[in-house]
Amino acid sequence: MHITEHITNAKGKTLFSIEILPPLKGKGIENVFKGIDPLMEFQPAFIDVTYHREEFIVKKLADGTEDKISTKKRPGTVAICAAIMNKYKVDTVPHLICGGFSKEETENALIDLNFLGIDNVLVLRGDNAKNESSFIPDKNGNKNALELLEQIQNLNKGKYLDEEIIEATASRFCCGVAGYPEKHYEAVSLDSDMEFLKRKVASGADFIVTQMFFDNQKYFDFVARCKNEGILVPIFPGIKPLTNRKQLTALAKIFSITMPSDLVNSVARCKDEDVKEIGLEWCVQQCIELKKSGVPVLHFYTMGVSEATKYIAHRVF
To answer: I want to staple 126 with a disulfide (CB 3.0 to 4.6 A). Which of 25, 71, 99, 297 is the partner?
Structure first.
């Protein structure tokens, strides 16, 4: 079922959803299920599964030369989505990224997803490779999320890369994209970031999932601005609780977000063992306010750990 259909069927009720990580290479899928099982009582409308691009390591050979080897630390996104759908009967939303993929490889991945009955995707450019100072697309790949979205929309029309294919079966992907209440870290301004989001929606994006935030006013302002710009698709707030002191600075730095002064001051005054309690209570109050405002979905970035999300969901749903 399309994510947009879930929203329609909810008739104004706020839904619960989660995002998980594939396990590290060498770990079994049981680790994924352990992170999902405790949250099934809240009947997630869908489960996002992140995709991690390839990385490269340089290995010295016996003859003194070097070999560049491609590796993926967290493979298995498509298979995990299929396994979750089979086990829990819940819709999954695999992330699709530009980095490390040619358009041909992307098309083949979409064909696989279509055969598996996976009807939803989250369309992202993806992060820079660790050895890159800026994003570098594959030689024959999509340069950004907008190009990737356009490729998917072409497939939804039955238009494949091979133009000689005629009377092709069209896919029916419902496409989500990312939104940034505090702007994408590479955007020169909020205006330019909003313009790019408008182009993604005009190109067929069906819903928006936001970057995490800790100040609800940032989300409310973002939604209001989107509406003023004619962006009327559902916008899901991305939620992550603060559970330790290091996250206060780490999350702000990694995701280019600001931390509210009240939260910063509360953490600064407390003992280390009390930070988690403060962070969870902050998140509970965030979610209560967001739910009261009528958000379509509360989308939790769980990172595969369910304890904090379960506590919050018990208080909110």
So the answer is: 99
